[in-house]
Amino acid sequence: MRFIALAVILCAGYFCSTAFAHPRGDWTKLIITRHWPQTFCSVEQCTTNLSYWTLHGLWPNTGMRCNTSWHFNVSLIEDLIPEMEKYWPDLLAPTSPKFWQYEWTKHGTCAAKADSLNSQHKYFSKALELNLKYDLNSVLKNNNIVPSEEYYTLDQVETAITGFFGVKSKIQCVHSGKVQTLGQIELCVDRDFQLIDCEKSSKEIWSNDIPAVLVSSQSDLSVCDHSVPVYYPPVPSRS
């Protein structure tokens, strides 16, 4: 009886409204994650001539591999393939769908708890839509943050992003000595796909979440340091 009474009291206030609005395992935000191909390949020893930020993933802030029996089927997104290859490429194996398969199994099956993302086609098409809607490449370029042998400050990069989008992003770098290399930038949206601030805590489950199958040095990428110069590597010139 005491337990029932306590539950009634709690449900009259904040606890019940938040606990039941988003049952355990349901996500409350999505992380639009882009990575810089040149930095990725410097870590993974691959080569690419891509000179624009590409999608790494669209990640719910809670849950991983929510339905492993829901297998990826590339034929269900056949109409999206040209865009996928351009904006969400596998930098290690450009002709393989394994990267997309991994992202669907780990993150897409959790995102699918929302009706707006409850199919493979909805999930991948929404990621492509958000990537273009919140165009990171243009924002950086328009603020004179371009790949260069010169260094930037983290404040310059953050100001460019926050000044345009009006929210805090999460910017991650590969750290090496007195310089850090710009590697990954995250923007966050709510369940209505509107921009909201991203958390910067390294304790979030999605921090540094680079698939082990794709990147062997997960510890190389972490939140950028304000006190260290930022290198934004250009595409290597062909000899």
TrEMBL record:
Gene Ontology CC terms, in alphabetical order: endoplasmic reticulum lumen; extracellular region; lysosomal lumen
Subcellular localization: Endoplasmic reticulum lumen; Lysosome lumen; Secreted
Residues at the active site: 56, 103, 107
One Gene Ontology molecular-function label: hydrolase activity
Signal sequence coordinates: 1-21
InterPro entries found in the cross-reference section: Ribonuclease_T2_eukaryotic, RNase_T2-like, RNase_T2-like_sf, RNase_T2_His_AS_1, RNase_T2_His_AS_2
Catalytic activities: an adenylyl-uridine-RNA = a 3'-end 2',3'-cyclophospho-AMP-RNA + a 5'-end dephospho-uridine-RNA; a guanylyl-uridine-RNA = a 3'-end 2',3'-cyclophospho-GMP-RNA + a 5'-end dephospho-uridine-RNA
Record keywords: Disulfide bond, Endonuclease, Endoplasmic reticulum, Glycoprotein, Hydrolase, Lyase, Lysosome, Nuclease, Secreted, Signal
One example of a Gene Ontology biological process annotation: RNA catabolic process
Protein family (similarity comment): Belongs to the RNase T2 family.
Protein name: Ribonuclease T2
Organism expressing this protein natively: Carassius auratus (Goldfish)
